[in-house]
Amino acid sequence: MMRVEDAWTAAHLPWLEALVARHPDVIDARLKHGDLPRWSSALAAIPACDGTPHLGREVGLMTVPDTAVAPLTEALKGLMPWRKGPFRFGSVLVDTEWRSDLKWDRIANALDLHGHRVLDVGSGSGYHLWRMLEAGAKEVLGIDPSLLFHCQFAAVKGLLQEHRAASLPVTLEQFDPGQLRFDSVFSMGVLYHRKDPLIHLEQLKGMLAPTGQLLIETLVVEGDAETCLVPPDRYARMNNVWFLPSIAHLTRWLNRVGFTDVELIDVSTTTLDEQRKTDWMQFESFEFALDPNNPSRTIEGLPRPRRAALLARVL
Predict the structure, then answer these.
(1) Which residues are registered as beta bridge partners of 229?
(2) What is the CATH classification number for the domain harbouring 257?
(3) Which of 210, 291, 293, 301 is the 20 to 30 Å CA partner of 135?
(4) 204-250: per-residue pLDDT in tens?
């Protein structure tokens, strides 16, 4: 029977038990979430599905028994909304709000993860953790405060029977790695939610082993090294967006806190194909964030979301 605690349990990660033991109060607080009984029932209802794991674009199982399709679909829908994916288990496609595979396509060729221990900050349901293993990572850890995301991760992990991955229900600010350090650290879609982005970058740097690499992906605006947009209120209907730097300004931040060899990997404009409402995420999505009369602007009249990915190393 699957449980949310399976997300942060893995016999193949010898450092994980000690890591979990450093966060008892935070984990206990997360486990008091009022929706956990409902999510736990959904996890417990997931049927056993022997199948070949697939860590590619649609992470999941190549096949599942015909008799498992209906109960598996119902159980996974008990963990809605699914934000990051996609996942597929035989004929069961979990069509998530975000096509996270498209983001991975934009950065994958620039990454060398072979033999790496990887930390993904703001890992969500863990989609990118599986793609990191596919790309050659030795072991991967995600951290994210949302307990639902860890339930979703536990479900996928249990179906895949893959034990080189774990996720922990903590924020970066709460995370105490002890002596543990990572060869690669990812922060994707987190920086613009931080009131002090320089502190966030310094915290990420502190998680890296010597010669480690950071992949930072965030919202940006056009402009020179002096340009940084601070939304007056909401941005694309989000009330927790604080700083949108230009790429040159973000590079300056990275250099200022001690990163070097900063390389721009990708710049892309968010599209309705990449983020949208689906049967697995039935709330309003990105289409409502844009000005219907001028889709180059947000509903607040600010520049349409553009995202940049940069790779940097520690000095």
Answers:
(1) 244
(2) 3.40.50.150
(3) 210
(4) 999 999 999 999 999 999 999 999 999 999 999 999 999 999 999 99
Q: Round to whole Å and give the CA distance between 61 and 72.
A: 12
C-alpha 183/C-alpha 33 separation (Å) is 33
Domain span at residue 219?
4-314
CB-based burial of residue 163 (10 Å sphere; 0-12 exposed, 13-18 middle, 19+ buried)?
Answer: middle
The larger pLDDT score, comparing residue 48 to residue 204, is at 204
The per-residue DSSP string of 224-278 comes to -TT-EE--SS-BTTBS----EE-HHHHHHHHHHTTEEEEEEEEEEE--TTTB--B
CA torsion angle 146 130 280 77 (round to 10): -80
The DSSP output letter for 189 is S
What pLDDT is attached to residue 315? 75
CA distance 290 to 139: 39
Q: Are 120 and 143 in contact (CB under 8 A)?
A: yes
Pairwise CA distance, residues 196 & 117, whole Å: 27
What is the reported pTM? 0.97
Tokens of 156: 């996928």
Tens of pLDDT, residue by residue over 246-305, are 999 999 999 999 999 999 999 999 999 999 999 999 999 999 999 999 999 999 999 999
Q: Name the domain count of the chain.
A: 1
